[in-house]
């Protein structure tokens, strides 16, 4: 819904304008002076501001200057007094879309507003259309990261995107496996054709085959017509088999045949059809271990795993959190028409300390929630405390005033500090004890003794 702001010190006129514009279907805010108007303009994304030129606190022309100064994508309509032609001309020169002179007919103002809003809607639709035509999921624009782990991922994408080799993308839930698959597709010669993602775990097993390959008319009760399968829908493009480890053995055999022969057979059909499609697979399990357990076919595993992209958890790429945070703030500023500038220092510290079991997806949800709750320009701890556990970096050590045995007190403090630093080192290295020992500057054996002694 388009949002408008009315700045008018005459209460009756302000209330009338708000009523009329809300009747037209707009979301309308109203304020009585220029100071409050400026605060609203800078904190909210308005499609249109209707303001009187003469206002207490700050005049309408000063408010109009904010448009250029802050690069606001906001239209302005200024209300001038009868005979103030000079002010009206100045307003147009400064970038106002229109002006009206008091006294004015309500119908005239509504007509002006509707015209401006219709034009802005067309402008917005054209922009979305152009972006859709030009959209490419290039790893530099849509997969965010500067860490060594992500630079390695970018290198692999760049090397293999143009080939038809099968790629197995592995990583924990929320690490962005589908985004990597999209980057591979949209940077390949197949980018003009369909990208079809399928979540193998979300489709009932008894329906998977007909979803994959389609079915012929009369194949089963209720098959009154022919259905095209997802493999044929992806013709010329790319298909992503997400959660591939959940696929039944019988379907694994048929998928292997597709990979070998480039043909599919609809359920109930006698003939096969040739398909030209690149197959990508994704899993949050160690597929090699599933092969060893007998849950996944070894021959299919090697067919899918021509190239492997192993995505790091967010815990393993914490240096990317500031970049990702800025990216999600930009994304949801646009979606919700907000102007949040970022997170404050305390929030960034909390984001960097948190373990992120839900990975990038969890970070995105936290930022989206915080941005919708934020009333000003900066997200603070209040906006995220219900979403993540905020850690306290300080180690509290209590020293009783009457304590006489200072040696004993010092020993207790030392143990408390050691336990906390070992815990933090293990957390920072994702429980890698060898790496934690290196961080602490002690031997691996010494660390193991302390973990046992302190029952960490």
From TrEMBL:
Sigma-54 factor interaction domain location: 143-372
Task: Read off the Pfam families from this record.
Answer: AAA_lid_14, HTH_8, Response_reg, Sigma54_activat
Coiled-coil-forming residues are 403-432
Q: Does the keyword Coiled coil apply?
A: yes
Supply the InterPro entries for this chain.
Answer: AAA+_ATPase, AAA_lid_NorR, CheY-like_superfamily, Homeodomain-like_sf, HTH_Fis, P-loop_NTPase, Sig_transdc_resp-reg_receiver, Sigma_54_int
Q: Which GO terms describe its molecular function?
A: ATP binding; sequence-specific DNA binding
Q: Which CDD domains match?
A: AAA
Residues bearing 4-aspartylphosphate are 52
Mention one GO biological process in which this protein takes part, according to its record.
regulation of DNA-templated transcription
Q: Which domain of life is it from?
A: Bacteria
Task: Respond yes or no to whether keyword DNA-binding is given for this record.
Answer: yes
Keyword field: ATP-binding, Coiled coil, DNA-binding, Nucleotide-binding, Phosphoprotein, Transcription, Transcription regulation
- What range(s) does the Response regulatory domain occupy? 3-117
Tell me which SUPFAM superfamilies the record gives: CheY-like, Homeodomain-like, P-loop containing nucleoside triphosphate hydrolases
What does this chain do? May play the central regulatory role in sporulation. It may be an element of the effector pathway responsible for the activation of sporulation genes in response to nutritional stress. Spo0A may act in concert with spo0H (a sigma factor) to control the expression of some genes that are critical to the sporulation process.
State what protein this is by name.
Answer: Stage 0 sporulation protein A homolog
Q: What is the lineage of its organism?
A: Bacteria, Bacillati, Bacillota, Clostridia, Peptostreptococcales
